[in-house]
């Protein structure tokens, strides 16, 4: 089965639509929205409503830290830009939309695949999976053969190999990276709406459970338009600027 | 997983015929399957409970890489078993002679060593073109078949665009003690020139009868190759020509900036021994000086050198073939070709240039071979070629000169470029219609049929007389 995994959409309507179009063309049979639907970006209402519709027709939604902050108003631990954006986001959303965000689950287990927004060992504390040592904590804490998360905005894959050691791999754009029948993996998908790996194109993970591989699809979209909306909304200028450079 | 294997047992349609000698990682069976001509090899990893995880990883690596390999220099892979059922790799049984068998009669005649070097170098070039580094090249893994050298066993291999499951897997160097490259001893697994080092060790062994670094049993023993050179090849076998000794030494350079970085360059030198520039070997430090050097001097500096990657040399083509027509002297087009050649050369610091001129023969043996002064056309052309290249100021060893005699210049250039693994051909095209009848079609044919990129240089039409220029 082909599964399209969209993480860290961050209220970026242009990137979200481009990503959905790309996975539909690729033939994805299932959609996972891996958290952080909102925050940073200028279109929270659109992204929340579209996500709600997708979930109603079978997609899986997961809670991200920005979704939680937008639902509860608690922005502790966030950067100033993120806090400003959350305050603005709360003003845009209806009580009903915030309630939808509040009810998203922290994780979803589908057979041998576990989905969380942040590190699977303590998803409610939002740890990042950046390095092999982070992935090792995940391997030690959860038995899932494939654990998939986002949150860092930087795509990576970690494989649990011999004697507790972990191999790291930076998947290449649009090239399938293999998964292995005998080795467990942690897949960190890049961000749809705010990539930070130097490539401004939206990132979607396409997991092929038949061929046993995962591809980080990169989709160019109109980031100038999104940046302009950010500026018009009075959100911090850097949030628009970074979309153009992918940082 | 607990299936027993015996002659007659059928796995996914493959009937096991006979168990072949095999190592500790997998059992190897000769097998057959209806619909497949010839024998099949079935490699079945030992994946019993309690088996070391590294066996599983080695199998996963080989499975991952073999699926992506093709061409005549690897076995044809028929099928891959499902790891959750019976894992196996089914591949063609390659008819031929293992280099391990040939090594038993070493020292071999140097022509034989050269031939094996060229064939294996070509197989490495084909493998490296597919972004794969073997990292465990040894005589047992090379079969000299009718179609050329065929490389086996990709359990330690690395694909540049795929995860390296073996990186940082163990403190023990992964490879074979006699042939492992020094950087691999330090755990570096990302350089195709590691395969060239191993090939150098194999050629040394074939030429002398001895492994250059012996068979060290410990990591410390393997590390010794970082600091100590093997005995000069000609001290073991004086019949080895100096050019061959030098080529093999260059394969075994510890400093990857001085080693061949590209298998195509090695093949080129083995094919053109008269172009190898001979250098005096520096005497090794002896006595106390050597001891001091080993204990305090060379070590860190050597390790530093090893951490420098050979591909820091730039990204241009490693071998450039420039074909130039000097029958009219060094004309404007020849100068333009030289300028273009300089630009391509500059893209990579260690690139090599092969300058080619074609001596056109109408029918072989039917052309005047001597000019009015009695000098042969061949020598005249070689002299002009060197004269043409002089302004490039290339050090000896970076450029070589070749006069090809041929009926069809295009075929000669194409054949030469392919045999020497050219990454780029630079040549000219004439704008004048009179000349094009003669030569212009050469570039058209080369562009159409070359297996690498071709830069075609032209003189702007304005600069030639308008009357005899056909617009392009």
Provide structural commentary.
The complex is a heterodimer of chains A (247) and B (472). By secondary structure, chain A is of the alpha/beta class. Chain A has eight helices and twelve strands. A six-stranded mixed β-sheet of chain A has the order 3-2-1-11-12-9. In chain A, strands 4-5-6-10-7-8 form a six-stranded mixed β-sheet, with helices on one face. In chain A, helix 7 runs antiparallel to helix 8 (238-245). The longest helix of chain A is centred in the first third of the chain and has 14 residues, at 13-26. The model of chain A has no long low-confidence stretch (mean pLDDT 96). By secondary structure, chain B is α/β, with parallel strands linked by helices. Chain B folds into three domains: 10-92, Phosphorylase Kinase, domain 1, CATH 3.30.200.20; 97-313, Transferase(Phosphotransferase) domain 1 (Transferase(Phosphotransferase), domain 1, Orthogonal Bundle); 319-468, HUPs (Rossmann fold, 3-Layer(aba) Sandwich), CATH 3.40.50.620. In chain B, strand 3 (26-32) and strand 4 (40-45) form a beta hairpin. In chain B, helix 5 runs antiparallel to helix 8 and helix 13 (409-419) packs parallel to helix 14. The interface between A and B is medium-sized, with 16 and 21 residues. Chain B: Pfam families: Pkinase, Usp.
The tally of beta strands of chain B, per DSSP, is 16
Tally of DSSP helical segments of chain A: 8
Largest interface: A-B, 16 and 21 residues
CATH superfamily of chain A: Metallo-dependent phosphatases
Text of the CATH class of chain A: Alpha Beta
According to DSSP, the number of beta strands of chain A is 12
Series of secondary-structure elements of chain A, N-terminal to C-terminal: EHEHEHHHEEHEEEEEEEHH
Please state the CA-atom Rg of chain A, rounded to the nearest Å: 17 Å
What overall geometry of chain A do the principal axes of the alpha carbons give? globular
Strand order within the widest beta sheet of chain B: 1-2-3-4-6-5
Multimer state = heterodimer
Runs of chain B in which pLDDT lies below 50 for 5 or more consecutive residues are 463-472
Binned, the helix content of chain A reads: 25-40%
CATH topology descriptor of chain A: Purple Acid Phosphatase, chain A, domain 2
Structural class of chain B: alpha/beta
Which percent range describes the beta-strand content of chain B?
15-25%
Weakly predicted, low-confidence segments of chain A:
none
How would you state the average pLDDT of chain A, rounded? 96
Domain Protein kinase (chain B): 14-271
Protein name (chain B): Serine/threonine protein kinase
Keywords (chain B): ATP-binding, Kinase, Nucleotide-binding, Serine/threonine-protein kinase, Transferase
GO molecular function (chain B): ATP binding; protein serine/threonine kinase activity
């Amino acid at each position: 089965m082909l599964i399209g995994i969209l993480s860290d959409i961050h209220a970026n309507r242009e990137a979200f639509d481009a990503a959905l179009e790309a996975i539909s063309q690729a033939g994805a049979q299932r959609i996972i929205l891996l958290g952080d639907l909102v925050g940073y970006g200028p279109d929270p209402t659109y992204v929340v409503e579209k996500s709600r519709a997708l979930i109603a027709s079978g997609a899986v939604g997961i809670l991200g830290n920005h979704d939680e902050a937008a639902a509860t108003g608690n922005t502790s631990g966030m950067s100033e830009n993120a806090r400003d954006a959350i305050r603005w986001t709360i003003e845009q959303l209806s009580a009903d939309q915030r309630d939808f965000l509040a009810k998203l689950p922290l994780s979803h287990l589908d057979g041998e695949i576990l989905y969380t927004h942040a590190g699977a060992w303590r998803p409610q504390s939002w740890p990042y999976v950046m390095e092999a040592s982070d992935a090792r904590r995940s391997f030690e804490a959860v038995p899932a053969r494939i654990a998939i998360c986002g949150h860092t905005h930087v795509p990576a894959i970690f494989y649990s190999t011999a004697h507790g050691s972990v191999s790291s791999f930076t998947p290449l754009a649009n090239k399938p990276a293999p998964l292995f029948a005998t080795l467990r993996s942690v897949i960190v998908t890049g961000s749809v709406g705010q990539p930070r790996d130097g490539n401004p194109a939206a990132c979607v993970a396409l997991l092929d459970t038949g061929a046993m591989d995962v591809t980080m699809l990169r989709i160019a979209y109109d980031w100038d338009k999104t940046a302009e909306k950010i500026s018009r909304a009075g959100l911090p200028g850097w949030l628009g600027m970074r979309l153009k450079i992918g940082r | 997983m607990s299936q027993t294997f015996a002659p007659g047992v059928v796995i996914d349609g493959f009937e096991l015929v006979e168990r072949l000698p095999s190592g500790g990682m997998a059992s190897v069976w000769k097998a057959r399957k209806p619909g497949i001509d010839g024998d099949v090899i079935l490699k079945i990893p030992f994946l019993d409970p309690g088996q070391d995880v590294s066996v599983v990883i080695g199998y996963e690596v080989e499975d991952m890489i073999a699926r992506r390999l093709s061409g005549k220099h690897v076995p044809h892979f028929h099928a891959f078993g499902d790891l959750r059922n019976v894992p196996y790799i089914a591949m063609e049984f390659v008819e031929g002679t293992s280099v391990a068998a040939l090594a038993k009669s070493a020292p071999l005649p140097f022509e034989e060593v050269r031939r094996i070097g060229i064939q294996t170098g070509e197989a490495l070039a084909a493998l490296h073109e597919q972004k794969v580094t073997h990292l465990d090249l040894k005589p047992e893994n090379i079969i000299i078949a009718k179609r050329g050298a065929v490389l086996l066993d990709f359990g330690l291999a690395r694909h540049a665009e795929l995860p390296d499951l073996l990186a940082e897997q163990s403190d023990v160097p992964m490879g074979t003690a006699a042939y492992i490259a020094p950087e691999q001893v330090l755990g570096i697994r990302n350089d195709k020139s590691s395969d060239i080092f191993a090939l150098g060790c194999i050629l040394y062994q074939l030429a002398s009868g001895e492994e250059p670094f012996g068979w060290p049993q410990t990591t410390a023993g393997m590390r010794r190759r970082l600091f100590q050179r093997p005995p000069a090849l000609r001290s073991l076998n004086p019949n080895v020509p100096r050019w061959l000794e030098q080529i093999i030494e260059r394969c075994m350079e510890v400093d990857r900036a001085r080693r061949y970085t590209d298998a195509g360059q090695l093949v080129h030198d083995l094919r053109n021994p008269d172009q190898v520039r001979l250098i005096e070997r520096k005497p090794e430090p002896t006595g106390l000086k050597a001891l001091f050097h080993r204990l305090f001097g060379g070590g860190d500096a050597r390790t530093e050198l090893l951490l420098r990657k050979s591909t820091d040399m730039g990204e241009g083509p490693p071998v450039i073939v420039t074909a130039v027509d000097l029958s009219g002297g060094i004309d404007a087009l020849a100068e333009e070709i030289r300028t273009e050649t300089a630009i391509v050369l500059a893209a990579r610091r260690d690139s090599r240039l092969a300058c080619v001129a074609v001596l056109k023969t109408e029918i072989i043996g039917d052309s005047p071979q001597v000019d009015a002064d009695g000098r042969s056309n061949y020598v005249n052309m070689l002299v002009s070629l060197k004269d043409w290249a002089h302004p490039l100021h290339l050090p000896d060893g970076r450029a070589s000169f070749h006069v090809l005699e041929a009926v069809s210049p295009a075929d000669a250039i194409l054949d030469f470029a392919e045999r020497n693994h050219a990454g780029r051909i630079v040549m000219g095209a004439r704008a004048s219609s009179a000349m094009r009848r003669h030569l212009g079609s050469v570039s058209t044919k080369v562009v159409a049929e070359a297996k690498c990129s071709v830069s075609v240089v032209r003189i702007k039409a304005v600069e030639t007389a308008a009357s005899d220029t056909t617009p392009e």
